[in-house]
Amino acid sequence: MQAFDPDLLRTFLAFAEGGSLAHAAAAVGRTASAVTAQMQRLEAMVGEPLLAQSGRGRVLTPAGEELLVHAQRILEVHRDAWLSLKGAKADGRLALGCTQDFADSNLPDLLRVFARTHPRVRLDLRVGRSRELTTNYDQGAIDVLIVMREGVQPDEIAMLTEPMLWLSASTDPVPPSSELPIAVLDPPCGFRSAATRALDQAGIAHRIAATSPSLSGLRAAVRSGIAITARTARFVGEGVAVAPQALSLPALPNAEFSLRLKPKAEKAACSLATLLAEELSYERL
Prior knowledge:
- By secondary structure, this protein is of the alpha/beta class.
- It contains 10 helices and 12 strands.
- A hairpin with a 2-residue loop joins strand 1 (51-54) and strand 2.
C-alpha cells in the first residue's frame, strides 16, 4: 500500500475546486505541465483515471469523486497535526486584521482550527476597512493582515484573487430607471472605484443612491432594494444575491486581497499566516 503525497492531494483538490488544470496550477504555484504530471502520478498510484475529458475541459471520474472525499480528510488531518505540533507550546498573543468580507465568510472556521491547536495563544481580532487596518499594521499593532491589495509589498506572503460581482436584493431587484442607483462605501474604496469606472466605460448612467462607512450599512442598502453594489461572492447571503442578467451590467475586474505577515513575527503568527494562505487560496478560484 502506497502513502498519498500531500502535495499531490493539494493539487488534486485545487483542480476539483477550481474546475480546470489552469486554475489548479495558479492555486498551487506550478506550471500547467507540472500539474498534469502530478495528476498522472496520482492516477498511477490509484490505478484508475481520476480525470475524464468533457468538451474542452476535464471533470472528475467516479474514482476521482471518491478520492476527493478522502483527500479532504487526509489534508485536514495533516493540517491539524502540523498546527498542533507548532502550537503545543506556543503562548502569548497575536493580532489579526481583516476586512469584513473574510470575517463574515469562512474565516471563523479557520480561526476555530487555529484556536484548537494553539490553546494558549490569545487572538486579538480587528475587523475594519482596508486603509485603517493597513495603518494599524504599519504602526506594528497587527501581526497578520488581510486587506485589499495596493501593489506588491515586501512582506506579502499570498495574493487572493476573487471575481467582483454585481449584487442586488434577492427578492426585489432595482426597478428600471434612467439612472442606475448604486450603493458604495465611503472613499477610498477599490470596489467603489471599480464599479463607477465600469459603468462610465459602458456608458451607463448611474447615481450614488446610498453610501456607508461599513459593510453592514452597505448590506442594508442593498437588501432594501434601493440600489445595487459591487462586491465578491462573500457578500452574498440573506437578502443579497447576484444581480439579474436583465440589468445588462458591465463586467467587473477581479478583486485582489493581500495577506501580509509582520517581519520577525512570532511563531504563532507565522503558523496562522500559513494556515490562511493555504486555506484561503482555494477560495479564490
